[in-house]
Specification:
single chain, about 280 residues, alpha/beta, Rossmann fold, 8-stranded mixed beta sheet, 6-stranded mixed beta sheet, globular
Length: about 280
């Protein structure tokens, strides 16, 4: 075993999950082997906690920490007290909403267990599909309210992240991203986890900061951390880690700052990286 690595932080979409949103058996088994050797495993995702916890459970490792909402929230199990919680104040959330609306876009806000939006959640939404597999007390909750400002006000202190997904009007999407960055500066952390979205958190929130927070709690140094990801929102944690691993299917900007490039998410890239740096 490479004694250097004591914590592995793994992105979900495009990384741990394949194109069918599944965790391969090789990925599961490799992570279980690493855990048996004493390595801490953490899921690190833009998704809300309830969704990330569902997939984390599929690995078959108990009490795995989950870094959710791009680092705004860290918790282990549903009933646990959060290790970290960085919410967006309602005043800022309302301003974000107004800017997004100005660009003819729609935004979803989420807490650790709830998705809030103006219109109904489609049947093919990842959370709708996942809810069919979950018991009632662990399903992602939905708040649908056309009076969105009122909904934001009633949700004060609970909003962890906003996400805008737009597959057609990409010019509007990138214009909104630029405007948010220009107006709020360091007050917000605005990144993308794909080619069709922007994700918005309070300025101190990032996957990198969350990984650093978790590592400190676990008494693990940065050199003893390996982070694996594929998108812009993963860059901060790859930069923090002693070993930053980019997926073969990852964006070029991620590969450019990575220490190592593994195989794709459809070819067990996570397992291959863990085998190389920990199990070999």
């Amino acid at each position: 075993m490479n004694q250097k690595i004591k914590l592995i932080c793994i992105d979900m979409d495009g990384t741990l999950l394949n194109s069918n949103h599944e965790i391969s058996e090789r990925n599961k088994e490799t992570l279980r082997q690493a855990k048996k050797l004493g390595v801490n495993i953490a899921i690190t995702t833009g998704r809300l906690f309830g969704s990330a916890r569902y997939y984390s459970n599929l690995i078959g490792i108990e009490n795995t920490p989950v870094i959710a909402s791009n680092g705004a929230y860290i918790k282990t199990n549903y009933e646990d007290i959060p290790i970290l919680e960085n919410s967006i104040p309602k005043e800022i959330a309302i301003e974000i909403y107004k800017i997004i609306k100005k660009h003819n876009l729609k935004i979803n806000f989420n807490s650790w267990d709830t998705l809030m939006r103006e219109d109904e959640v489609p049947d093919d939404h990842a959370y709708t599909i996942m809810n069919k597999q979950l018991p009632e007390d662990k399903k992602v909750k939905f708040i649908i309210n056309s009076d969105f400002i009122s909904a934001i006000e009633s949700f004060d202190g609970k909003i962890l992240k906003g996400i805008v997904i737009e597959r057609e009007n990409l010019d509007n999407l990138w214009a909104a991203k630029d405007e948010l960055k220009e107006i709020f500066g360091d007050k917000l952390h605005v990144v993308s986890s794909g080619t069709d979205n922007i994700e918005i958190m309070i300025g101190t929130t990032s996957k990198g900061n969350a990984v650093a927070h978790l590592a400190d709690i676990l008494n693990v140094n940065a050199e003893e951390v390996m982070c694996i990801g594929d998108s812009e929102n993963d860059i901060s944690m790859l930069k923090f880690a002693g070993i930053g691993v980019a997926m073969g299917n990852g964006l070029q900007m991620v590969k450019d700052i990575a220490d190592y490039i593994t195989d794709t998410n459809d070819n067990d890239g996570v397992a291959k990286a863990v085998e190389k740096f920990i199990l070999s």
